[in-house]
Amino acid sequence: MAIHFTMDQMKRCVENHDLWWEGRLNRPLVKVTLSDAHEADRITKAPYLTQANCTDFSYTPEEIVDAMDAELSKQEYLGDAFPMINMDSFGPGVLAAMCGAKLDNSSGRVWFFPDKEREIQDIHVKYDPENVWSKRIKAIYRAGLDRWNGIVKMGFPDLGGVLDVAATFRGSENLLIDMIDEPEEIIRLAGEIEIAWREAYEDFRSVLAPQGAYTHWSGLMSTETSYIVQCDVSYMIGKKMFDQFVLNTIRNDTKHLHHTIYHLDGVGELNHLDSLLTLKDLNAVQWQFGDGKPGAGSWLDVYRKILDAGKLIMIEGVPKDYMDVITVLHGTPFVRHDMSVKDKSFAVQMIEAR
Fold first, then answer.
1. Which of 3, 6, 141, 287 has the fewest CB atoms within 10 Å, i.e. is most exposed?
2. Into which CATH architecture does domain 7-351 fall?
């Protein structure tokens, strides 16, 4: 079974993504992936890689890639969609495991725990390129490069935010108390994790470079270094602490990487949006309003604020989510179902559309 995508299509997708990042595409990116458009023609030895089975090393990297290939071969890619592998299957914040934390997927989802509880003064974090998880991911990458020769883009693992990794080693509650009692130690530990994060990123980037472009769990692509940055811990703190402990780590990410999008996750993070929008090197914001909250059309003030700051925005969902936003902000863009619009600041990811 062949993947239903050509190198010419991939070339156009890469070009369009780069133009979007630079604000020169003059239309939105629209990704539509049909997940079961084609029949499977084989049963693979290995299961598809997920958080539930990522600890099973009984399958070779080549067998894992074969299972990925079989799944991708069932899909059809429309608009700016392309075949990609989302390596979040090793869990959100996997950098912690690459620095010595325990990875536990006994629940079917990946969680991380410290090898032992320590006071913040005794926690030191360093990336290990020979760690079992680092090596496993790189081995899968190499097998994928041999199999696909760039027709599939493999994403970076979900390394996590700097303070999210700190929370793994210290515990979220303890970390919040440390922000009051031990602010200098928080800043010191964050600095160590920043170094580890960049070393891990560069380690994976050096392996992925031959595929010609980089992607990550956001599903966006870039020929330049790129990542979706975040800080889930920030949901639990106010603006003052965010500016003191988090904002500079995000600023450093945006300076270190050529293209960055911030994952603004939930209403608890909205009070940090003004601070984030001051970062001149931040390219885009992905607003995730969360389960149980009203749809995209109910957050027009958020989207307006992001656009007014000169940032790109990403909407993930179904076509109605996109229409609810762009129709109000920019007027009705579609004529006879023409999916091109004049506005250039939207990336729409419509997954599982049928």
1. 6
2. Alpha-Beta Barrel (3.20)
In the three-class reduction of DSSP (H, G, I as helix; E, B as strand; rest coil), residue 316 is classed as strand
Contact in structure between 260 and 283 (CB atoms under 8 Å):
yes
Lowest mean pLDDT among 23-32, 156-165, 271-280, 298-307: 23-32
- 48: how many CB neighbours lie within 10 A of its CB? 13
Tokens in use for 204? 């994976």
Note whether 108 and 89 are within 8 A (CB).
Answer: no
CA distance 138 to 207: 7
Amino acid letter, residue 273 = L
State CA 117 to chain mean position distance: 29
Sort strands 153-154 and 214-215 into parallel, antiparallel or unpaired.
unpaired
Q: What are phi and psi of 40, to 5 degrees?
A: -75, 140
CA dihedral (95, 348, 284, 267) in degrees, to 10, reads -70
> Crossing angle, helix 183-208 and helix 132-148, to 10 degrees?
30
CB 115 within 8 A of CB 102: yes
266 three-state secondary structure: coil
- Cα gap 265→291, rounded to integer Å: 11
Give residue 70's region: left, alpha or beta (phi > 0; psi -120 to 50). Answer: alpha
Over range 203-228, report the average pLDDT.
96
1 — pLDDT class (breaks 50, 70, 90) = low
Beta partners for residue 222, in sequence order: 214
